[in-house]
Amino acid sequence: MNKLTSLLLWPAIAILGAFSFAALALGRGESVNAVWLVTAALCVYFIAYRFYSKFIADKVLRLDDTRVTPALRHNDGMDYVPTNKWVLYGHHFAAIAGAGPLVGPVLAAQMGYLPGTLWILSGVVLAGAVQDFIVLFASVRRDGKSLGEMIKMELGPVPGTLALVGVLAIMIIILAVLALIVVKALTGSPWGLFTIFATIPIALLMGVYMRIIRPGRVGEASVFGVVLLLASIFLGRAVAESATWAPWFTLTGPQLAWALIVYGAIAASLPVWLMLAPRDYLSTFLKIGTIVALALGIYYVAPLLAMPATTRFIDGSGPVFSGKLFPFLFITIACGSVSGFHALISSGTTPKMVEKESHMRFIGFGGMLAESFVAVMALTAASVLDPGIYFAMNAPAAVIGTTAAHAAEVISGWGFTITPELINQTAIDIGETSILSRAGGAPTLAVGMAQILGQAFGGKSMEAFWYHFAILFEALFILTAVDAGTRVGRFMIQDMLGHLYKPLGDTEFLPANIVATLLCVGLWGYFLYQGVVDPLGGINTLWQLFGVGNQMLAGIALLLCTSVLVKMKRERYVWVTLAPTAWLLVTTLTAGVQKIFHPDPAIGFLALARKFGDAAAQGTLIAPAKSIAEMQRVAFNNTLDAVVCGFFVLLVVAMCVFAAKICLQALKQSRPTAQEIPPMSGPQGAMP
Amino acid sequence: MNDAGNPEAERSLGRRWQSLCSACRQVFGMPDYERYLEHAAQLHPGAPVLSRDDYCAKVIERRYGQGVGRCC
Predict the structure, then answer these.
(1) What Pfam families is this protein classified in (chain B) (predicted)?
(2) What is the nearest CA distance from A82 to chain B, expressed in angstroms?
(3) I want to staple A379 with a disulfide (CB 3.0 to 4.6 A). Which of A105, A243, A357, B70 is the partner?
(4) In a domain, B38, yes or no
């Protein structure tokens, strides 16, 4: 860039950013416009990208375009394909963006919009984007190896195996919590359920079209798929209003849970071209389209933030999730600031497509900034809602009851004045019968999006359409994740079972496939079902368990990055990864230990298990449980949650010890010991 | 636009549309047969190539067969 332009542009962005933050920070007592929040975020991203990522690329990693990337070395036109930088950016972003950055910020909005915003912005710049970038770098320098393989290479076989077991455990919890979000959004919602259900025949039709009717014509199938998808939203309204059809699509939570479990088992066993691939295309179109529409909508409508900057719930007494700001904010907002799961994507297909090393800065670091922007928009959408509506949708029934009148009374008592009429009217506006206790982020975000998009396109009458569009958009990629995740889980389980009994590891052996699929579905299905019938809410427990697991995985990925830097003899710059690693370990270990041992039953799993277990033994009922059996189940499940949480804590502590040992050894060496592909190896055939 | 008027411009417009479609296919992770043919012609000229059906089937199987890590 021209030096003078650069000299003027960057100070201008810095001043705009500072001004936006000032508007956020100083606008006390009156509502602040959401545009300031979004602008402040964008300025932070631009500056971080321009300066910090350049520093990492040039000084810390020393990206070298003369090195041959795996895409060029193996260029096979299938997996290894050198890809245009911008195209790969889009591809990588589509792969990392999911439900995570949408759900976490919505839940965290109970503490006000400011704590969440600050953590999303500082977390992404110092931890999340750094992790994605360096893992991508490490994988490209190791011929596109996966995270597990790299841990095995650089830290040793035992940590490699431990990491794989950890990934499987996190996978199970993620699948359960994602499915639970869908259940919470679709319970008693015939319109929503019909549109989601309609995606199954639409995807099947697309699959058959692409394979049999017009083989290979993916574009044509996509066009009619999207048209049918939009038509299904309109048809859904007719279904919900029809006296004959509505009851067929009005299901209870447990019924939906079973439907999802059966769906998961069948979908993961079908050939991929029939349903998984076409549905993944649909979900990616909708995902990118919706995110762009939401960004434009926020700037066009310029809504006011109704949620205060901070609420009194930073003290840990919040109804959406319990626990203080430190450490629980940092595990509730996972994917928008730093997500261990991204380390799997950054060491998956993306490194096999990178054309030049210098592109990784834009793809790895820049891709994560875009993901973070999605999280900021989700936080914005939740914060433009009336706080009373926000709490009515997110507090569990155990706290606010099941009627609008009771909910309004409780929530007004917290200082967020709301009338039962407004709660009922909001439900009518979005075409639903009730909005109470629809925890899980998706419905809240959908109402926020419906209000923003409704004002931008179509007015009040279109709000119900936009609400169901938003639910469809989230449920669609959650169902894709359930299908794809069950397959990943199946392969991991088969890999492990293969060590115990050889034939079980054979992925071509049908009975072994079925056993592993059922095992995987059974595991996440168990957590899902318990979450659905949990009288205390479900989401508040499972999401935190997921948060601990996901941030632990991020900690493990950053430990790998740290070890790689030390082994490359770049210890001067080790703080780039060591500082975020330390912060992640401090927050997640504190959160993990508190989740297990905290004496307050609202926070500690064991305390809650003891409270319900003791009462059950004495034969006294504690509301909202309705029977002694239900209380015993609460006690058992909380003990189980404590065990899973304890496993994550021990895993990351063990990884810490392994990484420290490797780093100390590498420090004593005078030459680099990282196991990279040597710079001279050229494309296959071109050079021996 | 006049057909005979400017074939050069039209061809480049057509090419641009093709490359836009190709970019979209790559972003969405869809099979991109034209790109494969180009690749085959460049790296293995004269060698037999897969048919459109086979290529698409193979790419979809490779991409999704092992399950894809979709983020949370």
Answers:
(1) Sel_put (PF04328)
(2) 10
(3) A105
(4) yes
Nearest residue of chain B to residue A102 (CA atoms): B72
Direct distance between the N- and C-terminal alpha carbons of chain A, in angstroms, rounded to an integer: 39
Which residues of B have a CB under 8 Å from any CB of A? 21, 23, 25-31, 33, 35-36, 39-40, 43, 52-53, 55-72
What pLDDT, in 10s, does the model give residues A64-85? 999 999 999 999 888 899 999 9
From chain A, pick out residues whose CB is under 8 angstroms from the CB of B40. 77
Q: Which of A383, A365, A311, A375 is nearest to A130 (CA)?
A: A365
Look up the domain containing B31 and give its range.
Answer: 7-64
Q: Please enumerate in sequence order all residues whose Cβ is within 8 A of that of A64, keeping only pairs 6 or more positions apart, or say none.
A: A357, A679
- Whether residue B46 lies inside any domain: the answer is yes
- Within a domain: residue B70? no
Element (H, E) at B17: helix B7-27
- CB-CB neighbors (< 8 A) of A218 in chain B: 25, 30-31, 56
Which pLDDT value is given to residue A234?
Answer: 93
B28:A484 CB<8 A = no
Q: Is the dihedral of CA A480, A331, A257, A187 positive or negative?
A: negative
Mark the ranges of chain A whose per-residue pLDDT is less than 50: 685-688
Contact assignment for A277 to B64 by CB distance below 8 Å? yes
- Say how many domains are in chain B: 1
Domain A3-188+251-668 matching CATH 1.20.1740.10: the answer reads yes
Q: Which residues of A touch B42 (CB under 8 A)?
A: none
Whether residue B20 lies inside any domain: the answer is yes
Residues of B in contact with A546 (CB under 8 A): 72
B23's tokens: 């970019």
Per-residue buried b or exposed e for A331-361, using 16+ beta carbons within 10 Å of the residue's own CB: bbbbbbbbbbbbbbbbbbbbbbbbbbbebbb
Report pLDDT for B5.
Answer: 57
Which pLDDT value is given to residue A603? 92
Q: Where are the domains of chain A?
A: 3-188+251-668
User: Taking all residues of chain B, what is their mean pLDDT, rounded to a whole number?
Assistant: 83
